[in-house]
Amino acid sequence: MIQALVLLLLAGSRVTGTNTNPRLKLSFHDLRGRHGLRTYELERSCCYDSLLLDEERGRLFVGGKNYLASLSLDNISKQDKKIYWPAPVEWREECNWAGKDINAECMNFVKILHLYNRTHLYACGTGAFHPICGFVEVGQRVEDAVFKLDFKSLEDGKGKSPYDPRHMAASVFAGEELYSGVATDLMGRDFTIFRSLGSRPSIRTEQHDSRWLNEPKFVDVFWIPESENPDDDKIFFFFRETAVEGSQGLGKQTFARIGQICRNDMGGQRSLVNKWTTFLKARLVCAVQGSDGSDTYFDQLRDVFLLPTREKRNPLLYAVFTTSSTVFKGSAVCVYHMNDIRRAFLGPFAHKEGPNYQWVSFQGRVPYPRPGMCPSKTFGTFSSTKDFPDDVIQFARNHPLMYNPVLPHGQKPVFLQTNVGYSFTRIAVDRVAAADGHYDVLFIGTDVGTVLKVVSVPKETWQNMEELLLEELQVFKDPTPVTSIQISSKRQQLYVGSRTAISQLPLHRCGIYGKACAECCLARDPYCAWDGTSCTRYMHNTKRRFRRQDVRNGDPSTLCSGDPQRNSVQEKKLYGVEGSSAFLECLPKSLQAQIMWTYQKTSSAPWKEVLWDDRVIKMERGVLLRSVQRKDAGLYHCQATEHGFTQNLLHLRLEVINAQQAETISLSWEEEPTQPFHRKLWYQDFLQLVDHPNLSTMDQVCEQLWSRKNQQPKRKPLLPPPLSVKAKNHKWKYLEEKKRARSRRTHEVPRSERGPRSTDFW
Ligand SMILES: *[C@@H]1O[C@H](CO)[C@@H](O)[C@H](O)[C@H]1NC(C)=O
Ligand SMILES: *[C@@H]1O[C@H](CO)[C@@H](O)[C@H](O)[C@H]1NC(C)=O
Ligand SMILES: *[C@@H]1O[C@H](CO)[C@@H](O)[C@H](O)[C@H]1NC(C)=O
């Protein structure tokens, strides 16, 4: 046990994620104020776990606590319709007698929402530990504007919705039949994969057989055709469970699984009556190899997104995982191909001879038709599972588990984050047509209310991919876990649900990358291209000239060479007071850019790289010069290098004046009766704060300073002196310069606006 722990620790330290810094970070206020984020919340409700996107009607259907809602896909903040759907009082009381919290758990949490037919949805709720389902009329056309729960249609939701609002359930409609993975009892001990509704008899998994299901948590279900023949259609279940075959001595181990059943399974004739005869499952592996060859597994399957491709039977499956380990924290996204999944189900069966034996690969004779095959004309002569020979049924009952796991595409995660203080919860993927090919853009929800926008680009070949974390978007006011994500490629919008709210935001914000061709190019966002004057949405099929995009290489020197180079970086001036501090601020647009500072003492002197020491400190947002000296005066250049491309961001001339001069000035400011200005104090505070080890950025320094100032009611805020007074005095000119320099370092500019504010680069 201890040894294993140590191994895990070691493995953890060696596993390094992709670049953990997003290229851009956008706050909730930024997104709401400037980038079209809209939010929705229902009064006296919560927990928007189920979102259903309906492109045709242009609606987003939402399930929450005691409510169903229908929102406009164009703007979720307007035109909402809602249905109040509480649990009956008797059920709530029963629930309470069973020891559950009447206000937290004994409510109707709507967990399941499906499109049913052209006029109705099917919805299920926990009904205060008394699952319930029913039809919701939504009308055929947009104009119908109906949204009505048919209370007469309400029926028992056992085997469809969980009892407990904390439990997960997953389901899919295939025709008129609902396939669910869910707990079917109040205690949450009897789990099943269950077929209900429709006209055929209900079918379930073998009960109380840990080889079939062992404390599973169902994550997603998909209906995927196997061939042209619908008789071969299969339903695939994604879940995680306690592994029966886990390594001995490691305690309970969770494995991620994929399970399959045939859509035309009718159960057995003499045994496995009304039970699946085609159920098989395999381990789903998502792991990384440490430098010593040992693997770190991500076993906690959280979410799966099915990305359709041109071939209906071969969609891509994007899955999100986290680790089970309490020692090593990490999240990963792995992609699975149907061929690899099918290969595992065609491989050897896992076999255990008896209680004291190990799980091995079954070497004996597998009966015909091979368990897991659907009865159809494609692969055999059987027309129903009821005709399967007894030995097939017996074998199927005892061998639900495959020996070989399913490995992800490329044998490793496509995206990985370790030790970042959050984990992934949900995923949605958009396939984007760009100038040089198709790119899958991943939108990954986290447990801290953010969405990561990630794109995989080929490094040298299309086999060797590199992941770019383009954006980290704070889509909720509070750091609440993302519980659902829906994507509309048609409307280019993302819809995100959590416990507290639903947010809607566009898939791209091209303008934010900057006002130059090179900046647009460096962003490598497949949604965006340079159109000759600005960075805008790239549309693949429009034949506009001057559309420049290079997601693959992100190389502005070739792409933007014909572009008018706005290379004249304006020079700015900053005054430093000898013995005090000065801050040279330079913010690149990209958080992934490397900043280099160079310095020239006089115009004839050579350029030198700025050297860092205790006094000259490189900070996140610029350079801090503590105790400015005369020799610091000169010209400073700030250059950003990203992806091998360098651009000038700022030229700054620092002039140094002595403390005495500064003293006179500060006195003259304080003499000003209407606007007391405590310049000296400001510098003192500043220095003190800078010595504070906990404040790493200039913003924090200044925020602290401001909040302290504001707590002192007698003092007015730091305002510049009125210009009319002594305006002709040369001192004032100097002060003006100085004031500007200072406010540059502090608050005048919204923090979101990365990069030097003026149009002075390029
Ligand atoms: C969305 O609707 C709300 C409420 O009607 C409105 O205040 C807001 O401006 C709309 N937003 C957009 C982007 O249309
Ligand atoms: C859809 O299903 C509901 C519930 O069974 C039924 O009342 C309705 O007539 C159906 N609509 C269509 C268009 O078949
Ligand atoms: C500085 O940060 C550390 C760790 O985050 C914290 O324990 C400590 O209390 C902080 N000190 C001050 C003065 O805020």
TrEMBL record:
GO biological process: axon guidance; negative chemotaxis; neural crest cell migration; positive regulation of cell migration; semaphorin-plexin signaling pathway
Region of interest (Disordered), residue spans: 709-762
SUPFAM superfamilies: Immunoglobulin, Plexin repeat, Sema domain
Signal peptide from the UniProt entry: 1-17
Alphabetical UniProt keywords: Disulfide bond, Glycoprotein, Immunoglobulin domain, Secreted, Signal
Biased composition (Basic and acidic residues): 746-762
Molecular function (Gene Ontology), one example: neuropilin binding
Principal subcellular localisation of the protein: secreted
InterPro entries: Ig-like_dom, Ig-like_dom_sf, Ig-like_fold, Ig_sub, Immunoglobulin_dom, PSI, Semap_dom, Semap_dom_sf
This protein's record includes keyword Glycoprotein: yes
Purpose of the protein: Inhibits axonal extension by providing local signals to specify territories inaccessible for growing axons.
Record family assignment: Belongs to the semaphorin family.
Entry protein name: Semaphorin-3B
Taxonomy of the source species: Eukaryota, Metazoa, Chordata, Craniata, Vertebrata
Gene transcribed to yield this protein: sema3b
